[in-house]
Amino acid sequence: MANQPRKCRRKLWSAAALVSLLCAANQMAGATPSAPELQNGDRVGFIGDSITDIGHYHSYLQLFYATRFPDREIQYFPAGHSGGTADDCLRRLNWDILARSPNIATVNFGMNDMGGTFGASNASPEEMGKAIQERMKHVQNRYETLLDALSSNGVRLILIGPSIYDGTVQIGDSVPPGTNRLWALGVWTQGIKDIAASRKAGFVDLWTKMKEVNARLQAADPKATIVGQDRVHPGEAGNMVMLYSILKAQGIGPDVAEISVDAAKGETGNVVNCTVAEIERQENGIAFVCRENALPFPIPYRAAKALEWVPFTEELNRETLVVKNLPAGDYDLRIDGAVVGQYNASELASGLNLSLNSKTPQFQQSQKILQYNDTRSSLERKLRYLPYLRHCREAQQNIDWDNSVAVDEFLRGEIRRLKSNDYFRHIAIAYLDNVSGKTDAIIKQVDELNSKIRTERMPQAHKFALTLVK
Residue 4 domain-assigned? Predict the structure, then answer.
């Protein structure tokens, strides 16, 4: 690993500055550095802790790019580690990350790095500020060392701030632990923002939007939470909010396509990301052929609750059909001969968002991609078992991790030695049961699914027809 000396030491915040940040943390939305869009030919590594390792936000990001930008060939690999920190990521950097030659990395650390409590739950901002400052002296130094190592190997950075810790949700009869860890992660988010600006790196603020959503939920129901019952790991809807924040930071626009036709003139209107041809004015309506350059984003059903929390559909998933100057009345909309809905002329003139219409062939095509993506994600999760086990034991055990027989024998011994609730033991069992001796077959399955996604994501031309209902 080629380490280069820093040109300058990044600032560490004073206790007074931390107090100011704590008071202002809720106002951070707005003027943040943008994150770059992923482009054709990119190799993207998703680096982080368990929120990356067992989360879904990066799988959803892959799904979004497959449907919105089907002409971009992008390779991805997950590199999260449960319990991980920026510090210990340095130990696995060469064999787990750089060996796969990323040119872009998303870096998402903070929950463990800034873990613990910072004074009593009723600690003053000054007391919390001093405790957070002491922790950040170590965290920032090791975080920047990791970033230096990535940058010196030609990896461009997208720094993702941490998700929230929910110290306020009411779980059973327990007393919520309070907000100090939440605010520590808010301060760390501000720190990452400053680091990103100094490095001209991309930056994504998860904390602000997730905190805002969580506050709204708990105002209505003290037991509601955007994260799980462990107060740390976002559920699938929470991961969807994370996706929303990433895409907004990248400046992704709302339009899958805008299909616009003037029925009276038989001409196209303002079309976006599509082509319209073969317009036929008919006695009772109009027909035309449209080829969109993207597909609607297929909302994973377990994440659909997020559509109530953030304006994802309105701001990131608009497949708009506009047909002006139709005679008044109700019209059947057919796509490729099948009725997908009935709308009146006023609705059609104002514009319909078809992205969530499950009857359209575009929606059904996206659903196939969703299924392939889900299966691929679950297989890639299995391929992360061995890197986790290696990272946990490599420093203590002299094992050839490329020797599957020796690895399996070692893991069986650990399973016998460790207590039944030990997480390493749990992953070791999962590896021996599901991966050992099957790695090549799993990789082949992943490759086949990627190939299916590449084929399925290409949009098709469709015949649209609007017919007056008599």
Answer: no
Torsion of CA 395, 398, 404, 408, to 10 degrees: -80
**CA–CA separation, 57 vs 236, rounded Å?**
8
- 215 with 261, same domain: the answer is no
Assigned domain for 446 exists: yes
In the block, residue with structure tokens 């597909």: 295
Q: Which residues is 276 bridged to in the sheet?
A: 290
Report yes or no on 389 lying in a domain: yes
Total structural domains within the chain: 2
- The model's pTM: 0.93
Inside any domain, residue 5: no
Enclosing domain of residue 230: 15-249
Q: Which two three-digit tokens encode residue 452? A: 């299916």
> pLDDT digit string (tens) for 217-241?
999 999 999 998 899 999 999 999 9
Q: Which of 122, 115, 231 lies closest to 168 in space, CA to CA?
A: 231
CB 226 within 8 A of CB 218: no
pLDDT tens figures, 183-213: 889 999 999 999 999 999 999 999 999 999 9
- Residue type at position 247: L
What is the C-alpha separation between 24 and 67, in angstroms, rounded?
38
CATH of residue 110: 3.40.50.1110
Q: What letter does residue 307 receive in the DSSP assignment?
A: G
DSSP codes, 160-184: E-------S---TTPPP--SHHHHH
Same domain, 304 and 441: yes
Q: Report residue 174's pLDDT band, with 50, 70 and 90 as the boundaries.
A: confident
Token pair of 450, please? 């990627």
